[in-house]
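Figure caption, in words: inputs first, then the predicted bound structure.
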Amino acid sequence: MVDIDTPPRYSRIPDPLVGALRELARSRRLLVALDFDGTLAPEVDDPAQARALPEAREAVLRLLRMPRTRVALVSGRSLASLTAVADLPDTVLLVGSHGIELRLDAEPAVSLDTTELRQVDVLSTVLGEVADAVDQVWLEPKPAGFALHTRLATEHNSRVAHLVARSEASAEIEDLTIREGKNVLEFSVRSTTKGEAVEHLRRYTEADAVFYAGDDVTDEDAFAALGADDVGLKSGEGATLANYRLPGPTEVARALTLLADLREGDVHEQ
Ligand SMILES: O=P(O)(O)OC[C@H]1O[C@H](O[C@H]2O[C@H](CO)[C@@H](O)[C@H](O)[C@H]2O)[C@H](O)[C@@H](O)[C@@H]1O
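Bound structure (L263DTV3 present):
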C-alpha cells in the first residue's frame, strides 16, 4: 500500500481530498473522466501547442493499464484536435465537442443532417466576418460549429467580437447553442453538454464511481451529473459545483498520481 503521508509528494493535496481519493480508489469499476485544457494541460496561446503535463500524462497512462478502470477525456475540442494534443493510446475514451463526438472503443462517428450542415455554413460566414474584422480574433472549426478565440485580442476588441458574434449568429440560427469559455465563445448547431457525456460514459463503462476534473464553465454540467459516490475536482478559480478544488494543472497532476498509486494498491488486493 502507498504511504500517503510521505512528504512532499502529496503535500499540496488537502486531507479531505486525499480521503475521498482513497475511497474512490476502492471502487470496483472506476471511471476517471478528465477535461483537457486548463486541467491536464496548462493554457497556452496556440491550442495546437497545448500538452498534458508529463506527470498528468504518466498518471493517465498508469490508470489506463489498470483492470476495471477506464479513463475518458471530455473536451470542448473537436475529436481530431483532442486526439492530436492528447496523444494517448486507443484505450482512452474520447468525448469531443462537448459531447457531440464520441470515440468509445470504436471508430468515431458524428453525422450532421442537411439542416445542421447548412447552419454550419451560415455560421462560418457570419463568424468569419467577425474574425476578419477584429484584430487577433480567430475561428477554430469543429464538426458542429466554431470556437471564436479572443485570447490575444484587447479586452475591448474581445468584448465587441463576443457581442457582435453572439447577436449576429443568433439572428441567423434558431436554437443555436452558445457557450462562453476561457477567452473563447463556442457556437454549436447541436446541443449536448459534458453532463450528458458523463452520464453516457457512466452507463457505457458500468462504473460504480466517477472521478471528474475540469476547470471551465462547461465542466459545471459534468460536476452537476456527479453523485454521492463520485468525486468532482475543480482546477483553478471560479464558482463551482465540484466538492474539491486545486489551484491548477500541476496540482491536478499530483492528485491523479495519488489516485493511480492508491488504485494500484487496491486493484491488486481485490
Ligand atoms: O473542454 P476543454 O478540453 O477544456 O476545451 C475547451 C477549449 O479548449 C481550447 O481552448 C482553450 O485552451 C487553449 C489552449 O490552452 C487556449 O488558447 C484558449 O484560450 C482556451 O479557450 C480549444 O481551443 C477549444 O476548442 C476548446 O473548446
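The pocket of L263DTV3 is lined by residues 35-38, 43-45, 47, 50, 75-77, 140, 147, 149, 151, 181-184, 186, 216, 218 (CB under 6 Å).
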